[in-house]
Write a structure and sequence with these properties.
One of its GO terms (molecular function) is AMP binding. Keywords: Acetylation, ATP-binding, Ligase, Nucleotide-binding. The protein is α/β, with parallel strands linked by helices. Helix content is 30%, strand content 22%. It has a 7-stranded mixed sheet with strand order 5-4-17-16-18-19-20, sandwiched between helices. The protein has a 7-stranded mixed sheet with strand order 12-11-8-6-7-14-15, sandwiched between helices. Strands 21-22-23-24 form a 4-stranded antiparallel sheet. The protein is globular and about 70 Å long. It starts with 19 loop residues before the first helix and ends in a 12-residue tail after the last helix. It binds adenosine-5'-monophosphate-propyl ester.
């Protein structure tokens, strides 16, 4: 066979250089200058050589009730601890300290409902709302160390409830409002929550999502929950179970809901929240994050990667129910004192220009989203964004999966008008914050998350731990601990050790495959379970999909490997066509040839199915496992995270 792995390597030579004024004014170069360092690469090198000094500098940007004794405690690997001995509470840094400054009157949150309603909260107002909820929780007996489950639509009260838990030292476990009753029940049971915070419902595409009904079903199977606190969003009729369910608007009007509530002093390593990973394979795990290290990691990465400044209006268009929302809608923007935007509804409701309308009307300067959303909006054509003034934008961001160069370029050209660098941030629920990411001073290669962040050491290795050659596929590993890392898996520390630290001795195995090119840029291929071996060559499903999506007829694609007698695996692709194209044999042949042309003959799908939709997790990841099971006529396995 003539094919070689190089034939399927991405185009690693295309580079977009940042303009000089962005570099000059960046937060990260201001830090470099403070350290007497001239270049970003040098700063990265320094941050590894002086890792503790670097993270201590970052921690010193925040306030602590009392100082740490140790920056990193690695006496019980892999159960690393950060800033041990320090007293803190993330709420002190996210809210309390701003109230002592002019930021008290600054907007913390601009919320837009799908129905066009606007609500805005200054840091002062945010503090008031959080305190009231915190006092209600206390009156319900919630104490430091309890885990409160939150199941809410995308309304400000979701964020306030999370912050209220943290304030009084309770951990929150947010279950995404799109999950089914079984998923909610499992998570409630695992966390043994006594209190659940929810709402009557939420709006999505002008339809009422009946959350309370789902809650009622979940609670019939979860005896631990004694109190269910219900916010009113939709106003539709819901059942309220006497002795268990209480309306929040009633409680918030009682004297117990005082607007003053002291912030609980926590140990640096006390639990801040648990978040169940979406789990495209296996049962969801409750990832544990803590107050001290997480606040340092999230604030540092937002400050240097999205370069936030006081004049910014920052919009992370994720759902607060995912790690992206936890870290980069709720905590990091508040820690950095930046104004952020939250939007309740669907990106294309009532028209495909809803997002662009929000950008223009609100003056968004930084927009952080996911490739799946970009591709979704790209489908509707350029006319929708070009109708709006998007000139306020200065930085764009992407997260969640490798971004195909096609979507990257559309985002860069049509949305960013070639003025806005794209921060392609690689990280995970487990990592808490960005790990591999550019900052605005790093030259970009479309489709690569570029290089490890400051203080972070990453490698691409073989199964035996040895470093791969440039452009060779390998396992993505993180070679030293970092402050925002998960501390354990709730109720299952062994799973923490086995899942992340046992595969390769002493390093964190991310579960992704990747390549590092000759310039040290990392190209994440995808989850290891999404790698297809064809004739001995490893192909990322993402690459095949990216090739398909680069064809004008294709809106979205999923590739899986199916057993093949000769090649080991044959690629089978599922394709959603753009409007105006018809799925027929001729087009199938054209697409197969197109992929062959883009990636090399080895990657040409053996067959293609045209489909109107793809099975996805609620976070938008295609569940290839389900496609594969269906194609093979096998049971679909755990589908509790499936969207529909
Ligand atoms: O495979 C990587 C992919 O998403 C995984 C983590 O998923 P989750 O915990 O749901 O967190 C998503 C949001 C942080 C990773 O193992 N992933 C995430 N970001 C990127 C990515 N793959 C490529 N490029 C990215 N920027």
């Amino acid at each position: 066979m003539a094919e070689t792995p190089e034939m399927v390597a991405p185009n690693t030579s295309e580079i977009y250089h940042p303009n000089a004024s962005i570099v000059e004014q960046s937060n990260v170069m201001a830090y470099a200058r403070r350290k007497g360092i001239e270049s970003y690469d040098e700063l990265h090198k320094w941050s590894l050589e002086h890792n503790e000094e670097f993270w201590a500098d970052m921690a010193n940007e925040l306030e602590w009730y009392s100082p740490w004794e140790k920056i990193l405690d690695d006496s019980n690997k892999p159960f690393y601890k950060w800033f041990t001995g320090a007293k803190t509470n993330i709420i002190h840094n996210a809210i309390d300290r701003h109230l002592k400054t002019w930021r008290k009157n600054k907007l913390a949150l601009i919320w837009e409902g799908e129905d066009g309603t606007h609500r805005t909260f200054s840091f002062f107002a945010l503090n008031r709302e959080v305190n009231k909820i915190a006092n209600v929780l206390k009156s319900m007996g919630v104490k430091k160390g309890d885990i409160v489950t939150i199941y809410m639509p995308r309304i400000p009260e979701l964020m306030f409830s999370m912050l209220a838990c943290a304030k009084i030292g309770a951990a929150h476990s947010v279950v995404y409002g799109g999950f089914s009753e079984a998923a909610l029940a499992d998570r409630l049971a695992d966390a043994k929550s006594k209190v659940l915070i929810t709402a009557d419902g939420g709006f999505m595409r002008n339809k009422v999502i009946e959350l309370k009904k789902i809650v009622d079903e979940a609670l019939s199977r979860t005896p631990t929950v004694q109190t269910c606190l219900v916010f009113k969003r939709t106003g539709h009729a819901v059942d309220m179970v006497q002795g268990r369910d209480l309306w929040m608007h009633d409680l918030l009007n009682l004297p117990i809901a005082n607007t003053f509530c002291p912030t609980e002093e926590m140990d640096s390593e006390d639990m801040l929240f648990i978040l169940y990973t979406s789990g495209t394979t296996g049962k969801p795990k409750g990832v544990v994050h803590t107050h001290g290290g997480y606040q340092v990691g999230t604030s540092t990465t937002l400050r240097y990667v999205f370069d936030v400044k006081d004049e910014d209006r920052y919009w992370c268009a994720a759902d607060p129910g995912w790690i992206t929302g936890h870290s980069f809608i709720v905590y990091a923007p508040l820690l950095c004192g930046v104004t952020s935007i939250m939007y309740e509804g669907a990106p294309n409701y009532p028209y495909p220009d809803r997002w662009w309308q929000i950008v223009a009307r609100t003056g968004v300067t930084i927009l952080y989203t996911a490739p799946t959303a970009i591709r979704g909006l790209m489908r509707f054509g350029e006319l929708w964004p070009t109708r709006h003034d998007l000139s306020s934008l200065r930085l764009l961001g992407s997260v969640g999966e490798p971004i195909n160069p096609e979507a990257w370029k559309w985002f860069y050209e049509v949305i960013g008008h070639k003025n806005c660098p794209i921060m392609d941030t690689w990280w995970q629920t487990e990592t808490g914050h960005f790990m591999i990411t550019p900052t605005p001073v790093v030259p970009l290669k479309p489709g690569s998350a570029t290089k490890p962040f400051l203080g972070i050491e990453v490698d691409v290795v073989h199964e035996d731990g040895s470093t791969c050659a440039p452009n060779e596929d390998g396992l993505l590993v993180i070679k030293r601990p970092w402050p925002g890392m998960l501390r354990t898996v709730l109720n299952d520390p062994q799973r923490y050790v086995d899942n992340y630290w046992s595969r390769l001795d002493g390093v964190y195995a991310a579960g992704d495959s990747a390549r590092k090119d000759e310039d040290g840029y990392i190209w994440v291929i995808g989850r290891l379970d999404d790698v297809i071996k064809v004739s001995g060559y490893r192909l990322g499903t993402a690459e095949v999909e990216s090739a398909l999506v680069s064809h004008p007829a294709v809106a979205e694609a999923a590739a899986i490997g199916l057993p093949h007698e000769v090649k080991g695996n044959a690629i089978h692709a599922f394709v959603i066509l753009r409007a105006g194209f018809e799925g027929n044999h001729a087009l199938e042949e054209q697409l197969r040839a197109h992929v062959g042309h883009e990636l090399g003959p080895i990657a040409r799908p053996d067959s293609i199915t045209f489909t109107p939709s793809l099975p996805k997790t609620r976070s938008g990841k295609i569940m290839r496992r389900v496609l594969k099971a269906r194609a093979l006529g096998q049971p679909e396995g755990d589908v509790s995270t499936l969207e529909e």
